[in-house]
Amino acid sequence: MEISAIVTSVPLSLMFIFIGTIINLIQVACYLTIRPLSKSTFRRINGAVSEVLWLELVWLMEWWSGCEVKLHTDLKTYRLMGKEHALLMPNHVADADTMLVWLLAQRMGCLRSALIISKKSTQYLPIFGWTTWFYEFIFVDRNWAKDGSKLKSSFQALKDFPIPFWVTIFAEGTRLTPDKLLEAQTFASTKGLAIPKNVLIPRTKGFVTAVQSLRSFVPALYDVTIAIQKGHPSPSLLRFLKRQPCKIKVHIKRYSMKELPESDEGIAQWCRNRFIAKDALLDKFAATGRFDEEEITDFRRSTKSLIVFLITLFLFSVGAWISCQKFSLLSNRRGYTILATIVGTAAIFAHIFLEFTKLPPQKCKATLQTNGDT
């Protein structure tokens, strides 16, 4: 991690810890007092308080780093987004894909209920992970013997969700890297499958379970294709902190759940076919730099995340000033020690998150076609 990222991350981490701790305390209190009486009321309150934390990350992505996100879809789909339950199936490009989904959800008005299927270790991250647990993320072990029944029960628990929600499943199971792509290409070659260039081969068991469990009360599936504009790097938390802008184009095609096959094998093959189509779509995007569908010009960054950030910045600044005065943090050795401990804790907090999202060392040195600089 470079010095510039450390300098940036410490004050932002302090703010994140400050507001996140307050949110976690509210979540615990509501979980113990309101949820036993009304799960619906708890979900509404929990969504509202969690949204504040997610807006901090949306601000980091679209205002601080200047990340540009363009949406390409048909007008009918655009008008339904955020107003209906939906299962999202994006390709997994980078560690920032969760933040990208939240940015989409925020602009479509459903950030309070944008759920994601994530690896189990996520829930143990300080502040962020605890918030996602209350927020009803679905956590998996990546072991089907454990995950099968957990997924079914988690999906069924959404039947009485009080507001339109999104559930995002990354069917590839992991983000695209040179090593993972090489593994997928080798596997496809040995099995006589279409050899991917821009995506991985989807793991269909979780997707099949999602469709079969949700189709009775979720009307739509959004096939989401994420493409990085040529010459721009993959989005990542580190790059956002360093204010390195990126340009992302998102293509969405809506399918009615009624259109999908009825059998498990039929759904699995449908999923595989869609990823073959994604691969071809990304090939075409790499050649032309555009999608065929028109860009939704109304899909622009909102001021909501900026306003929330400024409010939390003000509250944090007031709290920090009061703490400095009350505990003499800037006037004696004991105060300096306490202040250094707080700053050190924030640096450790930032380091944990950056390490958690960092791309592991790659044996394959090939450049990914759709990801710009990896």
TrEMBL record:
GO molecular function, one example? 1-acylglycerol-3-phosphate O-acyltransferase activity
What are the BP-aspect GO terms? CDP-diacylglycerol biosynthetic process
Q: Name one GO cellular component term.
A: endomembrane system
State if Ubl conjugation is listed as a keyword: no
EC numbers listed for it are: 2.3.1.51
The pathway noted for it is:
Lipid metabolism; Phospholipid metabolism; CDP-diacylglycerol biosynthesis; CDP-diacylglycerol from sn-glycerol 3-phosphate: step 2/3
Record flagged with keyword Membrane: yes
| Superkingdom | Eukaryota
TM ranges are 12-34, 306-323, 335-354
What is this enzyme's class at the first EC digit? transferase
Keywords recorded for this protein, A-Z: Acyltransferase, Membrane, Transferase, Transmembrane, Transmembrane helix
Q: Which reaction does it catalyse?
A: a 1-acyl-sn-glycero-3-phosphate + an acyl-CoA = a 1,2-diacyl-sn-glycero-3-phosphate + CoA
Q: Where is the Phospholipid/glycerol acyltransferase domain?
A: 86-208
Any Pfam family from its record, for instance, is Acyltransferase
The UniProt entry, under SUPFAM superfamilies, shows: Glycerol-3-phosphate (1)-acyltransferase
Q: Which family does it belong to?
A: Belongs to the 1-acyl-sn-glycerol-3-phosphate acyltransferase family.
PANTHER family per UniProt: 1-ACYLGLYCEROL-3-PHOSPHATE ACYLTRANSFERASE-RELATED, 1-ACYLGLYCEROL-3-PHOSPHATE O-ACYLTRANSFERASE
Name of the protein this chain belongs to: 1-acylglycerol-3-phosphate O-acyltransferase
Q: Which organism is it from?
A: Theobroma cacao (Cacao)
